TrEMBL record:
InterPro entries: FliR (IPR006303), T3SS_IM_R (IPR002010)
Family: Belongs to the FliR/MopE/SpaR family.
UniProt protein name: Flagellar biosynthetic protein FliR
Gene, per the UniProt record: fliR
Subcellular locations according to the entry: Cell membrane; Bacterial flagellum basal body
Pfam family name, one: Bac_export_1
Membrane topology: Multi-pass membrane protein
Protein's organism: Herbaspirillum chlorophenolicum
Amino acid sequence: MINFTSQQLYTWIAMFIWPTTRILGLLATAPPFGSANVPMLVKVMLGIAIALVIGPDVPIPAALDPMSMAGLLVLAQQLIIGLSMGLAMRIVFAAVEAAGEFTSATMGLSFAAFFDPQTQGRTSVISQVFSLLATMVFLSLNGHLILLSVMAESFHTLPISAQPITAEGFHSLALWGTRIFSMGLQLSLPLVIALLITNFALGILTRAAPQLNLFGIGFSVTMLSGFILISLGLPYMLTPLQHFLSDGIEMVRLLSNMSPIGAGFKP
């Protein structure tokens, strides 16, 4: 007959539920796992499978009941950590989508929007093209595997503990969110400048030949020029996309190195 104590049962439960919570928090927000196109059942099963693989190697605090108030606080803490790591990666893709919005507005395609199931809002067609491009680059660089490996390492650099973590990592995440606009502008600036030059040329042409209907030819010329510029500029977007995705991974790694309050201090 197999006998085990309640403490052993608590350890087995904690060994599974706490790592799974952090992993599911990452999968809920980090691209491409966090997309609404990925079924919820797939996310849950993937999180459970990863937790079963890395769970035995995860250090678990001893003498802590996962069903107690302290255990529930640890559960909430792991969820916040996972969501923060996924959000850090999601910000890079938000910057790419912002670049698409800037380009669409300059091309005159701001009205050509459709419902995006991932953001639960309306987004432009160019933003979706840029987002798909970023996703393909991310997958081609094995970014999803690197992201999961950083998550696995985080259980050693930021172990599961009942101690609250410092706010420095979350402050860095808030500052990282401000880069949505700077990264989006860097990606779209060449296209926007070229389209502005096109609009200036159309304005000069209309001034020189008032009989030309600016509203009749301007939209067609601007839109056609935008598509040509995008097709010519897509190969050159690979290098900045790689740089931004690498910065996103480093931000996730920075969050995984957050230390608990009081760590390194002796009473």
